[in-house]
Amino acid sequence: MPEVEALIVGAGPAGLATAIALARRRVAVRVIERSAAPLDKACGEGIMPAGVRALEALGVELAALRAAPFRGVRFSEGTRSFSGTFATGAGLGVRRTALSAALLIAAEKAGVDMRFDCALERWEPQAGGVRAHTSEGELSARVLVGADGLASRVRAQAGLALPATRRRFGMRRHFRIAPWSEFVEVLWSDGVEAYVTPVAPDEVCVALLWRGDGGSHQEHLARFPELAARLASAAPASEVRGAGPFWQRARRRFASGVALVGDAAGYTDAVTGEGITLALQCAEALAAVIAERRPLADYEAAWRQASRAHRVFAALLGFGIDHPRSRRVAFRAFEVVPRAFEILLRAAAGEGSGARASARAARTKLGART
């Protein structure tokens, strides 16, 4: 018999969420993470309403988080601007380190066995699962879960990685300034976008997304004069941190004895803002499949269903990134009929009629943050 049912590689939001969901089902699980806690990562740091509810369901103390709510998303390019609000509550902006710390507390309460500064060195299939060799020794698991991010070694070693079709990168920095908008602001320019998220009552996160062809955070920020002027007197609250390349692809989300979750399962682009929310939703789906000892192919089906709208939205935005003229035509139309953008945004966030109904009960409990 395996020593654990699931060995999770990576203690980011996807890995910890999967572990908490398994532990709550009384499944023996261990998380290993090669870095020290709490973890940080370059991220837009916006969590959609469905992700906020998923965090609460995991036992995360939302009221204790240093964070800031947002009502929706606004796109701007030059003088053109349009926005959409969410239908099922507010999103939440929160620094990645604060989210990591909150998930660690929830994992400890759930009884998750976590080993930091512990690396996966290699693994091989065996009867009934896999045998993993870590820097702390060997153990057997029925399922090895790759939650090890964009450059997932588990994805590559399981033969699940596909070549990237495009390359995009991001840089993130925090600034000490009161948020000036109730929206996540996405500012567009040819070759680069700025993604501004409120993450505390006195702090914003500014992520810059581009092709990775050189340039510093400050140089790219200068492409947005109004934003740069607003931030000119604000003190930086973090160093610049980068991530990428985005648009990572996987053949599928499972192999024999192996499953992928979070960024390791495949990633489109940070401009969609759905990364953490999708990871949390898929973590719950994977935990259910593992706990119920169902075929991992069931998780693949659940992942595809959960990510379908997100992938369509990402493809549309990717087309807009690659074809500026077409993007500007679309933006002119959205400015005239902003309701059309709101419908698209809500669809991408999974806010259909069923989602709206399921969120009603959560609204009162979550209070002002949602």
Q: What is the mean predicted local confidence, pLDDT? A: 89
Helical residue percent band: 25-40%
Tell me how many strands there are.
21
Separation, N- and C-terminal Cα atoms: 44 Å
Strand content: 25-35%
Report the sheet with the most strands, covering strand number, pairing sense and barrel closure: 8 strands, mixed
Low-confidence stretches: 353-370
Short description:
The chain is of the alpha+beta class and 370 residues long. The chain has helices spanning 13-24, 49-57, 96-110, 153-157, 217-221, 225-231, 275-291, 296-322, 324-336, 338-348, 353-366, and strands spanning 4-9, 29-33, 46-47, 67-70, 72-77, 80-85, 91-94, 113-116, 120-126, 129-134, 137-146, 161-162, 169-176, 183-189, 192-200, 203-210, 235-236, 241-243, 249-250, 254-255, 258-260.
What does this structure look like?
The chain is built from eleven helices and 21 strands. A hairpin with a 2-residue loop joins strand 9 and strand 10. The longest helix is centred in the C-terminal third of the chain and has 27 residues.
Keyword list:
eight-stranded mixed beta sheet, single chain, 21 strands, alpha+beta, 370 residues, 11 helices
What is this structure's SSE topology?
Blueprint: E1 4-9, H1 13-24, E2 29-33, E3 46-47, H2 49-57, E4 67-70, E5 72-77, E6 80-85, E7 91-94, H3 96-110, E8 113-116, E9 120-126, E10 129-134, E11 137-146, H4 153-157, E12 161-162, E13 169-176, E14 183-189, E15 192-200, E16 203-210, H5 217-221, H6 225-231, E17 235-236, E18 241-243, E19 249-250, E20 254-255, E21 258-260, H7 275-291, H8 296-322, H9 324-336, H10 338-348, H11 353-366
Parallel strand pairs: 1-2, 1-11, 2-8, 5-14, 11-21
Antiparallel strand pairs: 3-7, 4-7, 5-6, 9-10, 10-11, 12-19, 13-16, 13-17, 13-18, 14-15, 15-16, 20-21
